[in-house]
Design goal:
Layout (H helix, E strand, L loop, with lengths): L2 H8 L13 H11 L5 H11 L5 H17 L4 H10 L1 H8 L9 H13 L6 H14 L3
């Protein structure tokens, strides 16, 4: 699914505040969109529209997709950094995925290796967070 289709799906719901309840239709839309979080732009679109639905299975799905982006598309990290610089709350949102107990060890090890050896200049703060997460959640 490309960015345009995700934007259309995301656009089906109105802009929301942080305290709004997630309706059944919004939860269904959020679950559907999670499968297509294949870029930082799409993750940011999800965050803008569905952050109030970030719970249970939806949260697990988002965390998994974010972790896959870090592990398998490390070269795109500068895109994430740019989005988090423009939207500090989005930074908090994606960093939650670092500090989850359900982070697969092999995936985390790959991210830690990249953070230690291939950290882009723009990503130094993020790489430091990865190393902090390693100390807190993972035995290395």
């Amino acid at each position: 699914m490309n960015k345009l289709l995700v934007a259309i799906l995301v656009g089906l719901t109105p802009l929301v505040g942080l305290t709004r309840e997630c309706t059944r239709d919004e939860a269904y839309a959020a679950e559907t969109v999670v499968d297509y979080l294949n870029s930082w732009e799409n993750v940011h679109l999800f965050y803008q529209q569905f952050r109030h639905c970030y719970d249970a299975a939806i949260a697990e799905g988002v965390q998994d997709r974010v972790q896959v982006l870090w592990a398998d598309r490390w070269s795109e990290l500068p895109k994430m950094v740019l989005l988090t610089q423009k939207d500090p709350q989005f930074k908090e949102f994606v960093l939650r995925s670092l500090f989850t107990e359900a982070f697969p060890k092999d995936r985390f090890d790959k991210i830690l290796l990249n953070a230690s050896q291939k950290c882009p200049a723009a990503g130094l703060s993020f790489c430091a967070e990865v190393k902090r997460a390693a100390k807190i959640n993972h035995v290395h």
